[in-house]
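Any chance you could type out a protein's amino acid sequence plus the matching backbone structure tokens because I've never seen that pairing?

——
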Amino acid sequence: MSKKLSVVDEQRGSLTNMQPQYKASLPKHISVEKFIRTLQTAVLSNKDLINANRTTLFSACMKSAQDGLLPDNQEAAIIPFKDKNGNYNAQYMPMVAGILKKVRNSGELASLTSEIVYAKDDFKYWVDEDGAHL
């Protein structure tokens, strides 16, 4: 029987070995264990990420930790992109829910609202003592 690690096992170990770096970057409300489990699920469920360039993958993972967003495809995602040589690079992408989470957690805003306006819609927008109106 071969003792050579599979790519999946090697990737899982590499993600876990970065625990000290993640822990130093994560906000207090996200445990490093939860972050690593989410990372492993995201990476190991996508064959293109399993084989992605490690430097770009680890960079994407660190950016996610620094933003305090879980790469669960709701708050953030780690997406594989092919380069011109056909190799995959990983890229961190915050999602709308994650951006809103960061805004809410920043303490910089009293409130946040959004509405949908389509091209060529005729609309009026104003803010008064009752709040925003569309």
About this structure: The longest helix spans residues 54-67. The beta strands are 76-82, 88-94, 126-128, 131-133. The mean pLDDT is 89.
